[in-house]
Amino acid sequence: MKILVCLKQVPEKDSRYKIDDLATWIREDDLVFETNESDVYALEEALRLKEKLGGEVGVLSLGEERALKTIKSGLAMGADRAFHLSDPAFQGSDAFVVATAIARAISGQNFDIIFTGVQSEDMAFAQTGTILAQLLGWPHATIVMEVNVSEGGKKARVKRELESNLFEVVEISLPAVLTIQSGINQPRYATLKGIMQAKKKEIRRFSAQDLGLESSQLGKTGSMVDHQKMFFPEKKKKTVILEGTPEEAARTLMERLRKEAKVL
Amino acid sequence: MPGKTLVLAEHRAGKIKSISWEAIGFGQKLAERLNQELKVVLIGKAIGDLAEEVSRRCGQEVLTLVNDHCETYTPEAYCHILSQVAQQETPFLFLMGHTYQAIDFAPKLATRLGRGFIPNCVDCQIDADRVVFVRQVFNGKINLQVGLKGEPPYFVSLQQGAFNAYEVQSRQSPRVVNLTIPLPDEVLKRKVLEIFQAAQGKVDLSQAEIIIAGGRGLGSKEKFQLILDLAEALGAAVGASRPVTDGGWLPKEHQIGSSGQTVTPKLYIACGISGAIQHLVGMMNSSCIVAINKDPNAPIFSVADYGIVGDVFKVLPVLIELAKEIRK
Ligand SMILES: Cc1cc2nc3c(=O)[nH]c(=O)nc-3n(C[C@H](O)[C@H](O)[C@H](O)COP(=O)(O)OP(=O)(O)OC[C@H]3O[C@@H](n4cnc5c(N)ncnc54)[C@H](O)[C@@H]3O)c2cc1C
User: Fold this and answer.
1) Whole-angstrom distance between the N-terminal and C-terminal Cα of chain A?
2) What is the spatial distance between Cα B158 and Cα B96, in angstroms, rounded to a whole number?
3) Predicted TM-score (pTM) above 0.90
4) Residue B160: predicted pLDDT
5) Is residue A105 part of a domain?
6) Largest Cα–Cα distance of chain A, in whole Å?
7) Does B137 contact A122 at a Cβ distance shorter than 8 Å?
């Protein structure tokens, strides 16, 4: 079983953002980056499949130099090799451009399954994996909570989460793209040994040119949708912020809930 | 901008989803503003009555795609059918609710037609010659304005609760047109083996009057005890965001949100929960919402009546003591 896992590097969850001068992206100076949450679950699922069925796990990340941290942590968790797609021309790309670049980078690699996370915590497109499947002509399943490979690697039975506590079990043929939902497993931590071994693993780098992509196919120009500007949302509801020390704020809250809102 | 807007309405168990009514409502407004025709699209097996009801309620024509193979959804069948519908009807916009189903097929459909898909929009500005959408990025902390690009149709999904469901009771008789689009064998390869409801747990939060909910901000299973303590002191039920149940700090049945329970207590206290949309849709109709979060920009504050910007580990112990006093 040859499995590829796409990992995206995103700002840490509790980040406070500033929007840059062009209002097209955030200012990255003070931010710390980590691997997108559902992508980590996807990698864990891939490693478990490999442990069960044999084979190899590749990880792929499209992003700047800093994305190497995400790639290395993937290798340290147990992936065998990595692809790093990095080029200033990728900046401002939408999910279509990213999926196109990934499809090119892995052509001829004969993966049986590609895992991505359900969606990224920064742009929340929730479509890179699905577009990739369409470009490759493969079936896909999204929001996956269980994966069982059957018929000697020709098919997979997957459990998909639907809304309101409903689930669906589908059988699809491989190769396929599956987008993995958080909670499908408990991801492992990298061990010291894993971190040491990761240093020797292969990281193949691809520029846009290596992928045969021209500037008209990349970034804002190559995108299918027009990302115009970012701005901070206005608050819709008037929130009464209770000031003071934690002690004071807690006291005021209890008062207000009893006397004003009358809910206690 | 003459032309046509199509809205795909999703249904389950013989009922149109509320999010699809919102999409129809927004479609009606948009079509009026742009002087366009609106049609609602329904796919399924026995949907004749439903189609008439929809047409009566919104006063628009409904296109049905009746097919035995479409009793259960598959992305292949939907993409096959809807790409033909898009080619026949040549709409300007193709709207839908941002549901799990939309996430599953819309990117594939748009890509197949060489178009883009703008997911999960919360707002839209319509001028005479320009339509721009707004969607949330960075977990709801930033908005992104997105314009249409290239040739129509433009595929757009709308976030739950962001637009009003709007209907006109039509006096005309319902207008339903069925299109027949046969499905070739290759789109029928996927087998849906089973659809089931997760085993009903012991926890039914829908009836709770007070819910104390904790999120990742609680840090660990051990520290989550603070939430349980406050709930006990107030005689309240315990809720959680997804990372809490993903991490096994609490059983899944405590999860609130789009993949958990929907609740409407008279008091909801959210502690260390950022307020991602998937959480908000499960609790935003609570009567009184309190948010305790150390980040003043956390989106949870956008739905809260009362907020404390602070550390849950400092605020919760005080609340627990006060709650015990009240109870006495
Ligand atoms: C398809 C899909 C379905 C989903 N369904 C659901 C669902 O049903 N329910 C759900 O909840 N989520 C759901 N999610 C996940 C959702 O997108 C968010 O990731 C999740 O709600 C975040 O949970 P959180 O707020 O606890 O964690 P985070 O977003 O990490 O927020 C933690 C918050 O705690 C605050 N904090 C940290 N430390 C402290 C402290 N000491 N004191 C005070 N505050 C502190 C931080 O400022 C932050 O705001 C779903 C996601 C997808 C893609």
Assistant:
1) 58
2) 6
3) yes
4) 95
5) yes
6) 69
7) yes
Q: Which domains does chain B have, with CATH numbers?
A: 4-188 (3.40.50.620), 205-327 (3.40.50.1220)
If chain A, 264 residues long, is cut into consecutive pieces of 10 residues, what is the mean pLDDT of each piece? 98 94 94 98 98 97 98 98 98 97 97 98 97 98 97 95 92 97 97 97 98 97 97 88 97 96 94
pLDDT confidence of B166, banded at 50, 70, 90?
A: confident
Which residue's CA is the nearest one to ligand 1's atom 36?
A: B217
- Amino acid identity of residue A135, one-letter, is L
Ligand 1 in reach of B257 Cβ (< 6 A)? yes
Assign residue A178 the CATH number of its domain.
3.40.50.620
Print the domain residue range for A182. 2-222
Q: Domain count of chain A?
A: 1
Instruction: Provide DSSP, B158-216.
Output: E-TTSS-------SSPP-EEE---PPPGGGG--EEEEEEEPPP-S--GGG-SEEEEE-G
Whole-angstrom distance, CA of residue A152 vs CA of residue A11: 39
Average pLDDT across chain B, whole number: 95
The yes-or-no verdict on residue B38 having pLDDT over 80 is yes
ipTM score: 0.96
**d(Cα B31, Cα B61) in Å, to the nearest integer?**
13
Quote the ligand 1 centre to B277 CA distance (angstroms): 9
The verdict on whether omega for the bond into residue A175 sits within 30 degrees of 0, i.e. cis, is yes
Is residue A241 domain-resident?
no
Q: Which of B136, B138, B315 sits opposite A17 (nearest CB)?
A: B138
Residue A242 is assigned to a structural domain of this protein: no
Taking 80 as the threshold, does the pLDDT of residue B320 lie above it?
yes
A229 within domain boundaries: no
A81 contact partners, CB below 8 Å, separation of at least 6: A56, A58, A59, A75, A201, A202, A203, A204
Amino acid B149: pLDDT: 95
For chain B, the first-to-last Cα distance in angstroms comes to 67
Distance from Cα B273 to the centre of ligand 1, integer Å: 5
Å from CA of A154 to ligand 1 middle: 37
Q: Determine the residue of A8, A10, A12, A13 to mutate for testing ligand 1's pocket, defined as the one with the most ligand atoms within 8 A of the Cβ atom.
A: A13
* Residue B90 in this model has a pLDDT that exceeds 90: yes
Cα separations (Å) of A182 from A13, A151, B128?
15, 27, 43
CA angle B291/B297/B301 to nearest 5° reads: 30
pLDDT at residue A151, rounded to an integer: 85
